[in-house]
Amino acid sequence: MGNGEILSYRDLDAWKVAISLTEHVYGAVKHLPATERFELSSQMRRASVSVPSNIAEGQASGSDGRYINHLRVACGSLGELVTHVEIARRLRMLPELGVQALEEHLARTGQVLHGLLRSRLRKRRVRVGSTLLCCFGFWLSALAVLG
User: So what's the architecture of 9-120 in CATH?
Assistant: First the structure.
């Protein structure tokens, strides 16, 4: 597998980075006030788990349309998590250094995830475009034969 071939979701950089983000979120929420342990903490953990889970489910689905849909859901969960971290920052619920570290992980995850989504969308357009071109060529040939 040294040639960069993707055999499973575990080979995807987006999944690896998202798993790392989830680990950091779980560590950070331990610093939330006790009053938030079952509210914001729970929402942050769920949103962070949703990102790699949707990447994995999409890649494992085998369908490009489903894959793209799951990547979009992962992007939505990432946006939700960014919002939770911003709320924690504004309400001073987390130490500033912890928030900065989380934001770095969020930014990196966003870059890699959006890159994967763009790549899948580009690949799908090429596939759809070449299929349409093939069909168009078939009909032109058929019309020429039928004359």
Answer: Up-down Bundle (1.20)
Q: Is the pLDDT of residue 1 over 50?
A: no
Nearest to 22 by CA among 98, 125, 91, 109: 109
CB 81 within 8 A of CB 106: yes
One-letter identity of residue 139: W
* pLDDT range class, residue 131, cuts 50, 70, 90: very low
CA distance 32 to 41: 7
**Residue whose C-alpha is closest to residue 79's, from 123, 116, 125, 110:** 110
Q: What are the sequence ranges of the domains in the chain?
A: 9-120
